[in-house]
Amino acid sequence: MPVRLIILLFLYPFLAKADQDLSVGKIKPELLKGAHAVIRLSELEWEIKSKAEGRLSTHLIVTIFDESGEERYRSLYVGYDQFTKIKDIEGKLYDANGKLLKKLKTTDIQDFGLGLYSDAITDARMKQAQFGEKAFTYPYTIEFSYETVDRNMMFYPKWSAGKKEGTAIESAIFKIKAPEGFAFRYKEKNGAPPVKKSPASGSQVYEWSIANLPADDQTDEYPLPQIDGEPLVLTAPSDFEIQGYQGNFNSWEDMGKFYYTLNAGRDALPAATVEEIKTLVKNLKTDRAKVEAIYKWMQAKSRYVSIQLGIGGWQTIDAMTVAGKGYGDCKALTNFTLAALRTAGIKCHPALIKAGEEEKIMADFPSNQFNHVIACAVLAKDTMWLECTSQTAKPNFLGTFTGGRYALLVMPEGGKLVATPGYKSQQNVRSSKASVNLEENGTGQIEVQVRYAGLQQEMRQAVLYNTTKEEQKKWLINHINLPSLDLQRFELIEENEAEPRVRETLTMNVRNCATKTGTRLFVKPALLSRTIEMPTSSERPTDFYLPLSDYNFTDLDTMAYHVPANYKLETTLPAVKVSSAFGTYEMKAVLDNNRLVCYRSVVMTGGRYPSSDFPAWVDFLKKIRKADRTQVVFVENKP
Amino acid sequence: MLTLYPQRGQLRMVLLRTLTLLLLVSCTFRVLAQEDIKPTFGVIDKASLQMKVCPGDSSADAMFLYDYGETTFGYEANRGIFIKTKIWARIKIFKESGLDQGNILLTYYEGAKTGAKEKLDDISGVVYNLDGNEIVTTKLDQSTIQTEKSAEGYLTRKFNLPNVKKGSVIEYSYTRFTPFLVSATPKAWPFQGSIPIQWSEYKVTIPSFIEYHITFGGYLPFYINESEVVDMKFGLKMLEGKSTSYRLVVKDAPAFVNEPFITTSDDYISKVSFEPSAYKIAGFIGEEFAGTWDQIDWKFRKAALFGEEINAPVFGKEIPEQLLDNAASPKDKMNVGYSYIQKTMKWDEGVALMPASDIKKAYQNRKGNSAAVNLLLINLLRKAGLDCDPVVLSTRSHGKVFKDFPTLENFNYVIARVMVDSVAYLLDATQKFARPGVLPEYALNGFGRVIPKVYQGHFIDIIPKDANSTLVMVDAEFLPEDGKLKGKYSASLGGYEALDWREDFASEPDKKYLEAFQKEFSEWSIKNLTVSNKTEKLDAPVSVKCEFETESESMSPGTYYFDPITAGKMKENPLKSSERIYPLDFTTLVATSFIGTFRLPEGYFIEEMPKAEVITLPGNSARFLYQAKQDGNVIQVTSKVSINKIKFLPEEYHDLKEFFDRVVTKHAQPLVIKKK
């Protein structure tokens, strides 16, 4: 899928105001606070020439105060490909008084291919502009301006009007100029400023602007997802054209139609492959079994390679080629899988999706917000989702990559937004059972079995399938939170079940498993449990977000310690229960002769919470961490 | 470490294992009656396809069955002398994650004229699969090979081999032609990589007109190590003569796994590398690259971008007056000059042995690479009349310097040495926050070579002047009933700790450090965090102070447990692996101290206290002191951990691991307090 190379940070265009006084003294004092740089002017102008062509001009003036500001703004990056042509990049540099010191030369601009360090096959390239070798005395001001001519009109620019960490904004403007009567769409989100419209000769101008925004000095430890948090102006085409293909994004239905047309008729398979599939499913009774068999067959037969070519990365390689070569990108492998499913008489469609942890689209603004495609088989009673770029995923498991969000199902009659299955705390379970044989000096021989399900098995699964035994051992040693250990045996295996589950079995000898001081043994009930990080600040002015992929979980730990016979309990046993809006926590221990059995359970629920809940969140974590630090103390039974 | 120096058809081998040095003299030797592998491209055995797991590493995702490189030299009228390397790889895919091995990218240099263009030729690829009992062979479709212009002067050829699946064996080969104008040195050949290699073979035939120092690095033995003298045809009389041909094979190389506390993986990986030492073409070229260290010293002195720059007129009247004041002491002059370059010059983060262009230009720009900055420093200090010379060295990531092989390529960095009253100061002005004499950690790599104004240079040991030192003091009151600990914290960060702190936080708002501090002490409520001497006196420690309060749960009435190492506790052993085959390198010495003073209210007594402990490793290379003592209602707990040696041998690993284990044990021990 295509990576669009407009660098959003610099998505501001060009309306030269050569006479602006750029001296640093002109900056309002309140904008200097905590600022490594101040954006004096940032203008982005998107001029729609026709449904097939647009022109994006960018004009950026930034005053840089220190190394950190320089790091961020000294270079200009402009991406381009066969659809995007860059017209002259200009640059100027001024001293603190606004006096011109230097102009950008052609030799200051470098050009490189984006496939440089990867095996991805792409025509995307990048130009980088930077003012030579010289060091300039802070503060100084740089000005960049350039234009691109765009013939991939599936995408219109997106504009961010939010505060930036360490950078203040004096003035930022986003303009769209369209021919009179030309239809396109836009949407302001999360408190972005409203549009101002003004007519120009034969065209209409839309303008959004912000001014005097101080730098954000807070590191946000629980940021909202970008589309929910940041003030944004989204824009998208109605009618558009790309390489002779016509389409419109007025509705999800229309967008689906376009993708369907672009990729129609590419699903023919070689006769031998058709035969192979028919044989494969011949004796299978249910559609579900057929889908599973075909998915497995496809996984064993193909591999993912990154190929970013073909109508801006949106038209698939035909199924015939994939059958012959055994590789393809996400579109091609999905198209191939769908072709195979159809051969077996299964109804199925591609589904466009925005992949990535915590990524989601804005469902109320039809536009191309996708970066990936998966397959969806429609069965009599339900649907099955297939990630075709993985050779190890289980059918219908989407996980953090594509689960729990809207996808656009592409059908011949048009597109439809449907939700992919999400993962609740009850599904993402880590359950461990440990038995510890404790010696008098505090050394423990531990046998532990941990089972991971749902989102919690993803990491283990990745380690299991992507690393060597030696690396697995290293990874485990570094991820077991113990002071020092000798991992004697370990096993990571995927259990043979419909839902993915990983089982981890460890045998280890742990020094300092319990702490020995003189005549006492200090035993930790939460020794093998995972800890949850505390935020560094206890107040918060805005809503906070606990990512579902990290915070929708259930941890169930049981530890049975065998304590040396000549030791007796000195403390009371822990019995802690905490519940909050975010979940519940419980810890308890029982002693039976010399067997101390400790139970701990945490059920957490991620999501967005109001800022007023933040103190309760901090308090909840404090209580959990305090209970986790509990030690059960045994003292030597002196005769 | 094994090194080899070819000379007139004879091999002189130097066996260098860390500190021991062993000399062997031998001619060609050969292990008789051994298994040898000579596969044929395009032909596969069924056993390789049937293999299910990698022998020796059951979870390797792929393995080289055969990794072959062959380098020869050639001559063509339009291209000049060139190096021709044939690469041939055969890889078994065991797991899904190994499928990427089928995606190949090859970058080569695209110079302006024929004689400066690299060329890739004869790319072919085959994939073998087993279908039932049948071997199915799929060839690489030449039309799918893409060529991308990757960066200025470079092209990349990319191809994806077809039908690569779990169980496949893939095979590809190509030939690279590298004209001498691009590089006159064969690339290093690694016998070890990120996946296991069953058979790694490198052949090279070195013509008589050029000599290389050949270096073997790493810890794997050769399975085959042969050489013979052959005749090499060039079609050009003056190039011809007796050539030496080598065949080197390493068998069953495990995947290389990185370890903590190393300089650079390049120092540990098994490989053969080349440094040109001399050309010998009668009547054509006759350049000696190097022979002796004297010649290297001479080259540095004469190099346009080195020796000549040091004495070039660069500075004018703008420099601090004190530098030219005869009354000023040499030490003051050094400090003033060092500080002037530190403040005036911006280092562009480039690590280099020589400046990019003349240093006058860098001075005008107020910016340059490490060599420009430090040559300016040397130039300035010499102008001030000080005894100052450059010291060339190899940074940690650049790897080891081979004292046996005098070449410029050994080095990649230059610093200054000033002698003041027969005390040597090593200066690096790229570091904004370093006091005179403190070098950045990446430059601490054993030794460097002084290049004096005249005559002989010499090697000097580079011993870090500072340790990584921290002293933490906690003075607090323990209130058993509510489990509260309340008091003052102060820390003094010295040496490299101070340098690190200054680099991370000196130019950041105070809030950044408060956040980091709060993260470190997440159970504390912190008040009045102040940092003094952020940058004012670089030779004094950074000092951190705050007030804190924290509580712990006590669960048995009348008995209280109290954890005295409240800050700087060693919670886990930094050495995780049970075995170690590489030496350890701590970069600098380490000294971490904690002094806790705790007061108890009336009416309590200490029932149990951790015992004092002293652990010293042989030669005092590491030392741990721990003591808890009581004086009335005041308890004092002190802990001091010091690492007094930088490099440890693999044989010392177990002792060191045990040492840290003991520290961890002691640091975890609580005090037991009871009500009277």
TrEMBL record, chain A:
Span of domain Transglutaminase-like: 280-353
UniProt signal peptide: none
Identify the domain of life.
Answer: Bacteria
Among InterPro entries, the record links this protein to: Avidin-like_CS (IPR017889), DUF3857 (IPR024618), Papain-like_cys_pep_sf (IPR038765), Transglutaminase-like (IPR002931)
Tell me the ranges covered by the DUF3857 domain, including all copies: 58-215
The protein in question is named: DUF3857 domain-containing protein
Q: What is the lineage of its organism?
A: Bacteria, Pseudomonadati, Bacteroidota, Cytophagia, Cytophagales
UniProtKB/TrEMBL annotation, chain B:
| InterPro entries registered for this protein in UniProt | DUF3857
Gene3D superfamilies given in the database record? 2.60.120.1130, 2.60.40.3140, 3.10.620.30
Residue limits of the DUF3857 domain? 90-215
Q: What is this protein called?
A: DUF3857 domain-containing protein
